[in-house]
Amino acid sequence: MNTKQIAERLAGFTVGIAGAGGLGSNCAVALVRCGLKNLVVADFDVVQPGNLNRQYYFLDQLGMKKVAALELNLNRIVKGLHLQMVDKKLVPADIINLFKHCDVIVEAFDDKAQKQMLIETVLGNFPDKPLIIGSGMAGWGANNMLVTRQFDKIYVCGDQESEIADNLPPLGPRVGIVANMQANQVMEILLGKMNCDDY
Amino acid sequence: MIIELNNRIETLEAGQLTVNELLELKNFTFRMLVIKINGHLVKKDQYDTALINDGDKVMVLHLVSGG
């Protein structure tokens, strides 16, 4: 598939992203750059100075709702997007409502209890929907610890170990890698595995 | 019994285990988990009662904060 064919294919799908922080904002940017048009993104937070080390926001967006800032930023990259930006801290009923029509769901929360809530809600209600999780990306280096593990329809991106702490913060490179691994996994699910004969 | 744990075949001496017994046996010390047995979600309040038997396919996914 060439770039145009990929974009045309992606335009037929809808992706849900739960969280618009380091994972969600960067994942959304990567996907719209490739041609995905339909996105549902939910987050309740505002852009803060500490977010700018890894999240796809800018100094002049400090204090803005992340969903509003991300909508602006995505529309500066591509024309004709259909974005459903939801300013809300999600509870299980929201997850069911917002993501029921999505072809793939990306878990992009930072808090592990929120991650668990989302995964259990999706497994309990949409067991056949692909769900891409980020778990374990704090700190720096250790490139080769970052992997994707698959369990049926669940894909887990990250090292599954390194948890954020004062001396192990989330930082642009590793969080960005995992966000882009999630986006890349979305691509593989929607487009099918890359066929080397296509080169 | 032989089970498939996180996509790997494991041979265990016990013939049957609860989820909590399996977690202890395998030294899973992480607190925030998502567990499935044969594709079915097992919630935390079922860890003492949900049973793992020979041939079962078990997923123990542990979650860490960050994003």
CATH architecture classification name of chain A: 3-Layer(aba) Sandwich
Instruction: Assign the CATH superfamily of chain B.
Output: Beta-grasp domain
- Largest sheet, spatial ordering of strands of chain A: 3-2-1-4-5-7-6
Helix count of chain A, per DSSP? 6
The geometry of chain B reads as globular
What fraction of the residues of chain B are assigned to beta strands by DSSP?
35-45%
What is the class of chain B in the CATH system? Alpha Beta
Mean pLDDT of chain A: 96
Helix content of chain A: 25-40%
Strand runs of chain B, count = 7
What are the SSEs and their pairings?
The complex is a heterodimer of chains A (199) and B (67).
Chain A: H1 3-10, E1 14-18, H2 22-34, E2 38-43, H3 66-75, E3 82-87, H4 92-99, E4 104-107, H5 112-125, E5 131-134, E6 147-151, E7 154-158, H6 172-191
Parallel strand pairs in A: 1-2, 1-4, 2-3, 4-5, 5-7
Antiparallel strand pairs in A: 6-7
Helix pairs in contact in A: 2-6
Chain B: E1 2-5, E2 8-11, E3 16-18, H1 19-25, E4 33-37, E5 40-42, E6 51-53, E7 57-62
Parallel strand pairs in B: 1-7
Antiparallel strand pairs in B: 1-2, 3-6, 4-5, 4-7
